[in-house]
Amino acid sequence: MKIQKRSWAEPYKMKMVELLRMTTKAQRIKAIKEAGYNTFLLKSDDVYIDLLTDSGTNAMSDRQWSAFMLGDEAYAGSKSFFHMEDAIKENYGYKYIVPTHQGRGAENILSKVLIKKGDIIPGNMYFTTTRLHQELAGGKFYDIIIDEAHDPTNEHPFKGNVDLNKLDVLVKKYGAKRIPYVSIATNVNMAGGQPISMDNLKKLRAYTKKQGIRIIHDMTRVAENAYFIQQREKGYERISIKKIVKEICFYTDGATMSAKKDALVNIGGFMATNEWDVFEEARNLVVVYEGLHTYGGLAGRDMEAIAVGINESLDDHHQHARVGQVEYLGQKLQSYGIPIVKPIGGHGIFVDAKAFLPHLTQDEFPAQALAAEIFIDSGVRTMERGIVSAGRKANGENYYPKLELVRFTIPRRVYTQAHMDVVAESAAAVFERRENIKGLKLIYEPKYLRFFQARFEKK
Prior knowledge:
Layout: H1 25-34, E1 49-50, H2 62-68, H3 79-92, E2 96-100, H4 103-114, E3 120-123, H5 128-136, E4 140-143, H6 164-174, E5 181-185, H7 198-211, E6 214-218, H8 222-232, H9 241-250, E7 254-258, E8 269-273, H10 276-289, H11 300-313, H12 316-335, E9 348-352, H13 353-356, H14 366-378, E10 380-381, E11 383-385, H15 387-390, E12 405-409, H16 417-432, E13 440-444, E14 455-458
Parallel strand pairs: 1-10, 3-4, 5-6, 6-7
Antiparallel strand pairs: 2-8, 7-8, 9-12, 11-12, 13-14
Helix pairs in contact: 1-14, 2-11, 3-11, 4-5, 4-10, 8-9, 12-16, 14-16
């Protein structure tokens, strides 16, 4: 018998495990009611398999834990900062680095430095914290992602691409001087973990260079994006992920990074820039909001772990296994007929809640309701990425995103394929009784980023 496709396995072995608490359905119903049907408000002790996020939930390696012991906890001039700075410069190529406690700290500082009231910030789909920081600084976000990204059934291989015509319309309408930068995410989260192609990025760089507009890179999952370029884009089949990442960064002027994703740590981030003036202002502000410019809210041990994690994230074998596990779950869900965003993305599976629960209107929060039902069924925690996450406009009206999704986000190096089987079977069980699932109504809403703390009850 000829083997058509060889199986893969994780490029690591386990030497420690974390024991989990098993719960009954009655206990889970009580827990989700007390949490206001918001999976963010569940206690982690009530969760069996936690797919809420891949942010800070990754398993660190033996080398990272060893680096922890080398952390220099000096308040000023920590050698651990310089180790992290060297790793960033070597692997990403940016000139100046400002450490922050996590990605949103970098977004806050960047927005304060670059955005003034009335500015326009185009980007390849919004992200919640990014857009909020842009708005609080006085700017307005405009989506310039290709239309295919808003269609969960479209199998375009690079749904993170920028529509250059949409960008050109904004430049002609508002003028290049009102656009401080184009915001580019690699592996676009809200689109389902979808990558941008190198070809599209090159064309964007050529356009913005003529217009005198910066490109700022949300590089939280840049290595995963590089994996898809390697697998899908002609000419990159034999190029290492490490080299592809360096090329991606080359076409941008600066970046924000949540190291809690790609860099495989539990906390940390940074802002990077190639412009001295921007760096100088950011370095002043980080002292106000985060900490001294050589620690930025981070312990020395965290910076050491980031330095090691960056290098581990760029290993081809690691990314093959990481994305491979996501693909495994996606294929299992599809085998049960469950509608997901296609093609399968990099950091999780995004279930199409509109197609899953077509009897619910978007005002009945179908993605929020579905996430709660999956938890009740099995103790698997997922999260909503739809109308609740989209929030409200300045006039108080809801945003109505075309995508109403439940995100099954897979932490790196944490769960086994058997866990993925449990997740898929739970989703399938809920799918079988989908017609009986009721919508929710909002009973508490915070001012900002409501998806974190909002509370609901069944209609």
